[in-house]
Design a protein that fits this description.
Layout: H1 2-12, H2 15-30, H3 33-44, H4 49-63, H5 81-85, E1 102-104, E2 109-116, E3 121-125, E4 128-131, H6 132-136, H7 141-147, E5 151-156, E6 164-166, E7 171-179, H8 188-191, H9 197-200, E8 203-210, E9 215-221, E10 228-231, E11 235-236, E12 246-248, E13 255-256, E14 261-266, E15 270-275, E16 280-282, E17 291-292, E18 297-301
Antiparallel strand pairs: 1-18, 2-5, 2-17, 3-4, 5-15, 6-14, 7-8, 7-12, 7-13, 8-9, 9-15, 10-11, 10-14, 16-18
Length: 313
């Protein structure tokens, strides 16, 4: 009788977590995602000392970030929670393995998926795929053509991660655009449940040409409670009103060195790296759930003699 009860408990054990996951995803479909995210933005930028200190202390208790890596290790020295959240690191905290052929991780986080496109299709999660043209939107039609059949890496930033985004290679910004959308969470539970998640969420897309002539794109995907997405050239792109697609200006001096900061998430989210066909080889040691840090080699660019032709827009 006891053994039978234990067997039933073992079989029933996973039911409650699965139910909780379904409820979590279902709630995201009905809550006012943008209104809540704007409220979080205001809250995290409050400079009322008791409030911001309480937020910072609660975050440290929950997530235990590595404060010894921060340029300012005293968490209560920051003017607001957001300043603490996007804190800069000590210069020696992230050694960079630089080089013209090295593609470095632009963020601290974890690999959600990594591999090659099935022409126009990317893997989102087990059993779920989405299309490159949907991700890049009609504004990125020319870049969709250039990146089809190429390589992609989806990099997820957890709340405890460093939230500034850096250049994987030395490159010049060639185009940038904003795509409005929903603000679903981008954690694994939601990625496994929401069809076309990354192509449905709000996002900022920056397209580049590397110093070695390789075009590539970085897709900064918004998420629930992400107060804003910012780039070095445009400042805070989101939140914005009206939430309509728009082309972002490209300044005349838009080149950044490898490892230079190019943007940030004010709260956590996801970066999707896209490279053309036959231009790089991913680090074979990396796969879903691999931890990564800024400056770590993700891939190596193929020599120019071995690259497939990537037409210019």
């Amino acid at each position: 009788m006891v053994e039978g009860s234990l067997g039933q408990a073992r079989r029933a054990g996973p039911v409650r977590p699965r139910l909780a996951a379904r409820l979590f995803v279902a709630c995201q479909h009905v809550i006012p995602q943008h209104a809540l995210s704007r409220a979080v933005l205001r809250l995290t930028r409050s400079r009322v000392a008791p409030l911001k200190n309480a937020l910072i202390r609660a975050f440290i208790r929950s997530y235990r970030p590595r404060l010894e890596e921060a340029a300012e290790p005293n968490p209560l020295a920051y003017a607001c929670f957001n300043d603490f959240f996007i804190r800069t690191l000590r210069p020696d905290a992230r050694p960079f393995t630089t080089g013209a052929e090295a593609v470095l991780s632009p963020v601290d986080g974890a690999v959600s998926q990594i591999g090659v496109l099935d022409e126009h299709t990317l893997l989102q999660a087990k059993g779920r795929h989405y299309r490159l043209d949907a991700l890049l939107s009609p504004a990125g039609a020319e870049w969709t053509r250039r990146l089809a059949g190429g390589a992609f890496a989806t990099l997820y930033l957890a709340p405890y991660d460093y939230h500034r985004i850096h250049m994987p290679v030395a490159a010049t910004l060639k185009a940038a655009w904003y795509v409005p959308g929903r603000l679903f969470s981008v954690n694994n539970t939601t990625a496994e449940a929401v069809t076309g998640l990354y192509a449905r969420n709000e996002r900022v897309i920056c397209a580049f040409e590397s110093d070695t002539g390789v075009p590539f794109a970085m897709v900064l995907v918004g998420a629930l409670f992400v107060g804003s997405i910012a780039t070095r050239w445009h400042g805070d792109v989101t939140p914005c009103r009206p939430r309509t697609p728009r082309i972002l200006p490209v300044p005349s001096d838009a080149r950044l060195e490898q490892g230079a900061e190019m943007g940030r998430f004010n709260m956590g989210s996801t970066v999707i790296l896209l490279f053309p066909r036959d231009t790089l080889a991913w680090n074979a040691a990396l796969g879903p759930a691999s931890r990564i840090v800024v400056g770590q080699p993700l891939a190596r660019l193929e020599p120019a003699s071995r690259r497939g032709e990537a037409s210019s827009p």
